Amino acid sequence: MKTRHLAFALAVALSVPPTDAEGGPFTVIAYEADLKGYRLADGSYARITAADIDSMVANFARYPKAPLVVEHADTREGMPAEWAEPRGHVVALRRGSMERTMPDGAKKTVATLEARLDVSPEVRLSIVGDPATQKPPTWPFCSITTAKGIDEETGASLGTVLYSVSLTAHPRLAALPRLAASQDPRGAGAELGYWYGEIKTRGDVVSMLREIFDLPVVSTEPEVLAALTRLEGLIGTPEETSGVDTDEIICSLRRALRLDALKTSAEVIGGVREALRTLPVAEGQPPAEMSRGAAAPVTRPKEGTIMKTFLELAAALKLTAVASEDDAQRAVLSLAQDGGAVRTTLGLAADAPVAPAIADLVTARAELARVTPELTALRTEKAARDEQEIARRIDEVCVARGFGEDVKPALVAFAKADRKGFDEKFPAPSVQELAQRAQDPARAENITGQGAAGAAQGAKAADPAKKVTTEEHVAALVAVYAEHGVQLTRVEALRAHLAGETADKARAAFAQGVAR
Length: 516
Hints:
By secondary structure, the protein is of the alpha+beta class. It has 5 domains: about 5-170, no CATH class; about 195-305, no CATH class; about 310-350; about 365-425, no CATH class; about 430-510, no CATH class. It has helices spanning about 50-60, 120-130, 200-210, 220-235, 240, 245-255, 265-280, 310-315, 325-345, 355-400, 410-415, 420-425, 430-440, 440-445, 450-460, 470-485, 490-500, 505-510, and strands at about 5-10, 10-15, 25-30, 35-40, 45-50, 65-70, 90-100, 105-120, 140-150, 155-170. The strands form 2 sheets. Strands 1, 2, 3, 6, 7, 8, 9 and 10 form an 8-stranded mixed sheet that branches. A two-stranded antiparallel ribbon has the order 4-5. Strand 9 (about 140-150) and strand 10 (about 155-170) form a beta hairpin. It is elongated and about 125 Å long. The termini are far apart.
């Protein structure tokens, strides 16, 4: 196969199964997503689609060759040479699915790419770490490299192929949970990443919850179940708002019950309640007792995250109508969620004060109410000026180009609908153009042997219903002024006409001795 247009996928949490006869569990190594933070050579952004995943699965069946390397050293220059050496191989691929919370907050089921990996015990420990010696993992995540495959024999396009899987210490896809590893290949019998005790009875579940919630050993079963209900109410609330890392607690519960790594928070809590409902009470043993194996490291909530009861918090926040701890919890969580929504709407950081931003909005609203009438008046005035300017401009265009009155309605509609296009098609005529058109004798003499003024009067007398054109008005004004010894240019006559002066008014003014 040829590989072309390599694309690096974002990193995901990784867990490597043992290489026993059963093959071990599948591990999610990618899911469909738009990777808008990564640009390809052609300028487009990278993406992994469901079709890409199906193509990788189908091509792996034809050509099952995908090595496990470190930090994409097989395709990147400048990396340590030993990192490009295969640390293992992908031995099986399949398509799966998972539910994601998208960037816009919506829930969406997306396709996933799942793989079985074949690695040595040493490499496996570098991926999952060693809880027995408290050694952390070196490469706890993975990132895939894809390529466009071409059949060497036929030249046919094969679509997307899985080129390699890289171990990495730079995870980016927070939507994928860390998967639980299976039995330690060293044969010690320890269970990496799981709760170390066996859960066989209802009392085991209660005892497990007590330790994960970091409750006192004397906590009663109702108190433990109340903590579980409280956790359920905190799901979906940001950690910076609630002060509780619910993801870590859910992860601990998932491992303790040995649940599927793709179980959602709601499904994990549902699994806990199912175990409480279906598991028997150990004979001769209190419900809160737990049969356990070796001690296990437990992920605990941070100390001091809950300093008060919800009733105390409700009172401090001046929340009314809360008669019980549950009512107070709902009221406090509702207030926190509303506050988070307000911060999101205002574009504020989690620690930014809200009051100044709200004060700015209130003052801006008052100022807007004050200036709105003035703004409306200005807009009305501007609209009137625009109408007058359009009428003047169209009169000038008609004079310069010799258009008649019948053209004006179309020009008005054009100018109002697309002023920019109108200006480009009919640029404002210059004074020289207007003067040239006004002085054209062919337009000044409409009737043989008759002056312009007589033409206008004659046209009007011949057909009173006929509308006198702008050019005829201009010619008549020039003629009237000439009769009284005043030289009036066509441009001056046009401006006088646009100001409302007519030949009759000019003649009357000369008769009264008030004309210029």
